[in-house]
Amino acid sequence: MTKTILITGASTGIGKETALYFADKGWNVSATMRTMAKGAGLLKYKNIRVFQLDVMDTSSIQQAIQDTIAAFGAIDVLFNNAGYALVGAFEAMTQEQIKKQFDTNVFGVMNVTKAILPYFREKKNGTIITTSSMGGLITFPLYSVYHSTKWAVEGFMESLQYELKPFNIKVKNIEPGAIKTEFGNSLDFVTADAYKNYVPRVHQNMLDSYESAPGADVVAKEVYKAANDSSFRLRYTASFQSTALLFIRRIIPNNWFFGIIRSATEKGIK
Ligand SMILES: NC(=O)c1ccc[n+]([C@@H]2O[C@H](COP(=O)([O-])OP(=O)(O)OC[C@H]3O[C@@H](n4cnc5c(N)ncnc54)[C@H](OP(=O)(O)O)[C@@H]3O)[C@@H](O)[C@H]2O)c1
Predict the structure, then answer these.
(1) Is 172 a catalytic site residue?
(2) Above 90 in pLDDT, residue 208?
(3) Is residue 131 within 6 Å of ligand 1 at its C-beta?
(4) HEC per residue, the chain
């Protein structure tokens, strides 16, 4: 029987690429997004349907789940992917900016997961895959709040896996390294005069690293592998950078690791 995946944040980047990859493999795809017009290019695929879903709007989540089941008969995999990054000097970030970052990256993931759970629990089958990040297990400068959302997602999903296993619900986190998508363009960037010798230079160094980053297909393939993995494995790295850095973090002392991150990101700072 043809399987169905519901993807959040499928308008661009990793979400869109994953929608196309799964459709190409013969899956039914519910490509959900905040702005339906952004899904126009996906409508030509007969096994992709586009539905409106904002991860901060619980009624849109319920509606998209119902519409997906009505269209395809079932949902087998939820892919929590929507997200963005608040970046810069923490001191200068407003409460509103910090709240929006958590509302999207953490409470958004919880909202969609909570909405699908009764359905997966009753059918005693389902897989919840979430785009975390290598930044859910390690950190870089200027991304303190973004990292705290991804570390929250890692802790949330790592704990959740225990209570869901008796219902045969699998929990899987994808940890990409830097990936060339709209991510770099959608950053909410904040700085302040007191940080003028640090923030702009480090921010530029971080942005430069996206230029040589792999495309979203690297992540889509890993999501596909996770979706078809019948084991209860929790974590999947995506990209060489992520696999290498997470390995190095595990085997060397913290201070050495922080030194590597400093030399890579603080180039040009006197
Ligand atoms: N690119 C990287 O280097 C990288 C690395 C590690 C992890 N990630 C993670 O990968 C995920 C996807 O990012 P991406 O790289 O593909 O960036 P992207 O191209 O900017 O895509 C982000 C997607 O999230 C959607 N989104 C944002 N807020 C939303 C909300 N409230 N409700 C529903 N959708 C929302 C965006 O929709 P709109 O089009 O409406 O804005 C867009 O579809 C994110 O969780 C990100 O943290 C990215």
Answers:
(1) no
(2) yes
(3) yes
(4) CCCEEEECCCCCHHHHHHHHHHHHCCCEEEEEECCHHHHHHHCCCCCEEEEECCCCCHHHHHHHHHHHHHHHCCCCEEEECCCCCEEECHHHCCHHHHHHHHHHHHHHHHHHHHHHHHHHHHHCCEEEEEECCHHHCCCCCCCHHHHHHHHHHHHHHHHHHHHHHHHCEEEEEEEECCCECCCCCCCEEECCHHHCCCHHHHHHHHHHHHHCCCECHHHHHHHHHHHCCCCCCCEEEECHHHHHHHHHHHHCCHHHHHHHHHHHHCCCCC
